[in-house]
Amino acid sequence: MIKPTESEMEILQVLWNKGPCTVREVYETLDKKDVGYTTILKLMQIMLEKRMVSRDTSAKSHLYKATIGKEKIQHEFLDRFIETVYNGNTSRLIMQALGNHKASKEEIELIKQYLDNLQE
Amino acid sequence: MIKPTESEMEILQVLWNKGPCTVREVYETLDKKDVGYTTILKLMQIMLEKRMVSRDTSAKSHLYKATIGKEKIQHEFLDRFIETVYNGNTSRLIMQALGNHKASKEEIELIKQYLDNLQE
DNA sequence: ATTGTTCTACGAATGTTTTCGTATATCTAA
DNA sequence: TTAGATATACGAAAACATTCGTAGAACAAT
């Protein structure tokens, strides 16, 4: 199973949000002053080996894009997370998420509607 | 900040659920056939160094207990998780959690009540 | 065409986590 | 009291993950 590391996840987020990017675009978007350009380059090359991304090499600056879907990866991470951190207790995760985070009225309504749908 | 690794988290889960345990109890509870006893022992000794656990050495088999609270650690992990995996979008996490997991009527009711409380 | 900039490739150092083997101590039961 | 089972301690290997330096290709502008 594909399991991106934390750094790989950050890069994937950029690719998911912005679509295909060059290394430099990713580097600048992440804006991590503590890490050099070639570090990001290397990471993305490794991600290519692992087939998490593909690239278009027709131009001098290669264009990378994610080959794995955001939803799929989020789903897998969430399952693992609930297992290891919440011991499988999804309700607790949800309540704690609701608790930590100051939800707006709109968000609460949205989630309620979602729950109503589930109840049918 | 204390940031347990994935393996450390599994051990902490056991200690949180069962209370103070010996290495063997943890080892048997985890029931990972692919990992030896001394591996778990070593991990727990490292956790002791990191002060994630304390131990009572009065008997031959030492009794370990978690020194860090479940809620605190879950909270920290959740924040980081929402950031790296959901890009800060808590509502999406909640909905995906609700979607993946077949919630019982009771759970849904519980969450709804929780939302009602939040709305005041 | 030479110079400076920007790119890729890639080896290798560093750091962290996980794993286990072996030595040694302690207990238990014949 | 000796043999076997069960503990701990701990060094060190193995497996990953992260970081960067340096070499050289491609390009742009003078």
UniProtKB/TrEMBL annotation, chains A, B:
InterPro entries: BlaI_family, WH-like_DNA-bd_sf, WH_DNA-bd_sf. Gene3D superfamilies: Penicillinase repressor domain, Winged helix-like DNA-binding domain superfamily/Winged helix DNA-binding domain. Keywords: DNA-binding, Transcription, Transcription regulation. It comes from the Bacteria. GO terms for biological process: negative regulation of DNA-templated transcription. Pfam families: Penicillinase_R. One of its GO terms (molecular function) is DNA binding. Belongs to the BlaI transcriptional regulatory family. This is Putative transcriptional regulator. It comes from Sphingobacterium alimentarium.
